[in-house]
Amino acid sequence: MTIRPRVSTMAAAALTTMLLLAPPVATAHALSGPARTSAPTATAAALELPHPTGPYAVGAEVLHLVDRSRTDPWVPAAGARELMVSLHHPARPGSTGASAPYMSTEEARLMLVQRGLEDVVPATAVSSATTHARLDARPAPGRFPLVLLSPGFGTPRATLTSLAEDLASRGYVVASVDHAYESTGTSFPGGRILTCAACDADNATPDEAAARALRKRVSTGRAADLAFVLDRLTGHRPVRDHARMIDPRRVAAVGHSIGGSAAASTMLADSRVDAGINMDGTFFEEIPATGLGGRPFMMLGTDARHRPGTTDTSWNDGWKQLDGWKRWLTVKDSGHFTFTDTPYLAEQAGLPVDPTAPLSGARSTGITRTYVAAFLDQHLKGRHQRLLDGPTPGNPEVVFNNP
Question: Got the DSSP string for 283-299?
Fold first, then answer.
């Protein structure tokens, strides 16, 4: 399976802005196989995610959820819609369980193969990246807000791990979701690896209009997925004991790329979701004239592609329809994958810096974590954040837009 993203959605990406150590990818019409790279072979030196910054220890577990009320939209023969969820949560201090794995070796291999890097970066170097959450850690006492986290199209949920861990350390339960058949490879029970049938369907679309229609299906389908996850974590018959640590009155949807579009779609479809963030994703479902019911929403993107007046007009249109508290922030020197683990891990591997997105891995991580947490603290915990009132000297890369 090979994903060859269209220029309009993932164009001009270089090593540190593509998904986990990935080189530029050509268009579907220009290649018959995955892109190759002449980058030097990466060493197998240990990679490590940045440490969480909050006061809580972090626990983690993986959930397999099956929505038997829906048939999978990409592979109907597979039957019911399946999801894999990484749940990060505040934990009691002194947890001694094993460290949560970053991703499986096969998931890492498929991700690298898709980008022609299987001979450049060892899959084991990626899969064994050190995380800071402990398996089977006892939850901290209390009930915490829930954050539903959705990754980009063709992107494993693992690449948002540093954000998930940090939010958990700050007092949030975070459910990061792999949507079946929408990632390069996702491990499911029974040794199954599901690859990106949705991406293959996208690559086969005849034109941009058809592609936009398909991506809208992705966005609205993910909204149904996230609503189901919310049901299972907080409903009358929750999976395991998660309802005891989640406050169902405080819920946010956050996503990267098409996951950011899905965050807005989730708010449109589900009134239980109180706030949302789109990290550098085109809005494939239009925000209607009625807005989001007065609920807060933040747009956080690249200055090159998502400042007012740039090519993605969905942000200009969406901004006009947002009817509650809102912010439109862009980050100078950033790339599409700035808001993921990519730059931090690529830097450790010694790969070249993309001259179009020279923001360091540390700043990429710091800005993403800080502004996402500030938004959630203000709107789910009721703590006013002066950071969101306007530009600050300590974050000169962050631009406040008010078109």
Answer: -SSPPPTTTTTT--EEE
